[in-house]
TrEMBL record:
Biological process per Gene Ontology, one example term: methylation
UniProt protein name: Methyltransferase
Keyword tags: Methyltransferase, Transferase
A Pfam family the protein falls into: NpmA
Gene3D superfamilies in the record: Vaccinia Virus protein VP39 (3.40.50.150)
Main enzyme class: transferase
EC number: 2.1.1.180
Lineage, top ranks: Bacteria, Bacillati, Actinomycetota, Actinomycetes, Pseudonocardiales
NCBIfam families: self_KamB
GO molecular function terms attached to this record: methyltransferase activity
């Protein structure tokens, strides 16, 4: 596992990651973390949990990773890892994830969350414990006009997501329970640079939030293992 600590990238072994997991009540995985501000925000608010911000672009992580690695008096947080990796090839050391965040995905990550990359959904489910929670937020302006990443998927609404996307996700052990538009306060609470940038360029930012459970114990009669 390649961990970004600022200017450096260091290897974190499976044993080191296991030890970190053992010292925390859960593992929150922020997929496509971008510059890492959302993961940092979550780690500050939830010190009992280990937060892993994962992104394929390591340079975007350097500034906030350096801050996270500093002493607590200078904003450092001990329960936060920034990992240099793409979601298409998750680190072999990653496991025991109790919550997955995918905020404002783009590119291949957006295609995956829309059900166009079933391997991505399966691989993420494989690193999660039974009944892991998920939050996906979709920037609906990706359909206005539609970008190539959305393919043939029409702009989702709460109703269409529950009707059309839910069965696709369910087949990969992602049970979609709720789909709702976020208001301005809820969007701001995501604490991402991307949402703030989009908010500043539009009179109104439209975001659809999808929430549910991965590896639900009642899915297929198993325990999700």
């Amino acid at each position: 596992m390649r961990r970004v600590t600022g200017k450096q990238v260091v290897d974190t072994s499976a044993a080191d990651f296991d030890e970190l997991v053992s010292r925390h009540e859960g593992v929150v995985l922020d997929v496509g973390t971008g510059d890492g501000k959302h993961a940092y925000h979550v780690a500050r608010r939830r010190p009992a949990e280990l937060v892993v911000g994962l992104d394929a672009a390591k340079d975007n992580l350097r500034r906030i990773a350096a801050k996270a690695a500093a002493k607590p008096a200078k904003g450092g947080v001990s329960n936060l890892l920034y990992v240099w990796a793409g979601v298409e090839r998750l680190p072999a050391e990653l496991h025991s994830v109790t919550e997955v965040h995918v905020l404002m995905p783009w590119g291949s990550l957006l295609r995956g969350m829309l059900g166009s990359d079933l391997t991505m959904l399966r691989d993420l489910a494989a690193v999660c414990v039974p009944n892991a929670e998920f939050l996906i937020t979709l920037n609906l302006h990706a359909w206005r006009p539609a970008v190539p990443e959305v393919g043939t998927h029409p702009e989702p609404t709460p109703a269409s997501a529950l009707r059309d996307l839910a069965p696709v996700l369910a087949a990969q052990r992602w049970r979609l329970d709720e789909a709702d538009y976020l208001d301005a306060e809820e969007i701001d609470a995501l604490a991402t640079s991307w949402t703030r940038r989009l908010n500043s360029s539009r009179d109104q930012l439209d975001v659809l939030a999808l929430r549910g459970v991965i590896n639900a114990r009642d899915a297929g009669g198993g325990d999700g293992a």
